[in-house]
Design goal:
It comes from Kibdelosporangium banguiense. This is Ubiquinone/menaquinone biosynthesis C-methylase UbiE. Pfam families: Methyltransf_25. The chain has six helices and nine strands. The protein is globular. Bound molecules: S-adenosylmethionine. The site of S-adenosylmethionine has 20 residues, from helix 1 and helix 3.
């Protein structure tokens, strides 16, 4: 089957920016206390192995590992995965798509999708959330970071390179509905206003799969 065009352009764009992405993005986290707080809450709640889906160069993967989480990363872009392996040789990373994960049903205790659902057309997001749900155990946690809004922005430039990338800004209520429809129970959500290096509000959404005796 032919790959959808958005996956091809997303992969090509991140392959192009991979070399500069980590050095430009990593230092930002020093000034993002709310991002770190959400990840810390997730790290405290989660039990069992965590899959960081759309892990990019492994910045969040490494951060969670530093909090004691057993975590590995998956990303569409071989270029991003190569940088993740270079920067975090102690962690496991693989190339793959969260549209169809190479993970067994009920095999992970946590899924992180940190700004990685933002390139998927909205009408395809139910498939992605169903895939998150499929791989999580009962009681497992899902942590999603996204750009909060309701528009599509096309990027022809990013991280100092020419790219072709659509970014889907998502209303928090839509993210909550996608999670609910996939079988998740909401735990917490946060919207913070834009920092100086951002173009709009940022959203964070934490949910869990009901335990067997809850569903
Ligand atoms: C904005 S970057 C975020 C990377 C990382 N999570 C971080 O916070 O630094 C988005 C990443 O999601 C990946 N991605 C986008 N769609 C994907 C998909 N369908 N499957 C796997 N990875 C995907 C991209 O290749 C890219 O590395």
């Amino acid at each position: 089957m032919m790959e959808p065009a958005y996956l091809t352009s997303t992969r090509a764009s991140y392959d192009t920016v991979a070399s500069s992405y980590a050095s430009l993005v990593r230092p930002m986290y020093d000034n993002k206390p709310f991002d770190r707080a959400m990840l810390a809450a997730f790290a405290e709640l989660v039990d069992g192995p965590v899959a960081d889906l759309g892990c990019g160069t492994g910045i969040v993967t490494g951060y969670l590992a530093g909090l004691g989480v057993r975590v590995s990363g998956v990303d569409l872009s071989p270029g991003m995965v190569a940088v993740a392996r270079r920067d975090h040789p102690e962690l496991e990373f693989s190339v793959g798509s969260m549209n169809s994960l190479d993970l067994a049903d009920s095999s992970v205790g946590g899924v992180v999708a940190w700004y990685s659902i933002i390139h998927t057309p909205v009408e395809l997001l139910p498939e992605i959330f169903a895939e998150f749900r499929r791989v999580l155990v009962p009681g497992g946690h899902l942590m999603v970071a996204f750009k909060a809004g309701d528009e599509i922005r096309h990027l022809a430039q990013g991280y100092g390179h020419d790219i072709e990338l659509d970014v889907y800004w998502l209303e928090p209520d839509l993210v909550a509905k996608l999670a609910h429809d996939a079988g998740f129970t909401e735990v917490a959500r946060l919207v913070r206003i834009a920092d100086a290096d951002e173009k709009g509000p940022q959203g964070y959404f934490l949910a869990r799969v009901p335990d067997v005796d809850e569903s």
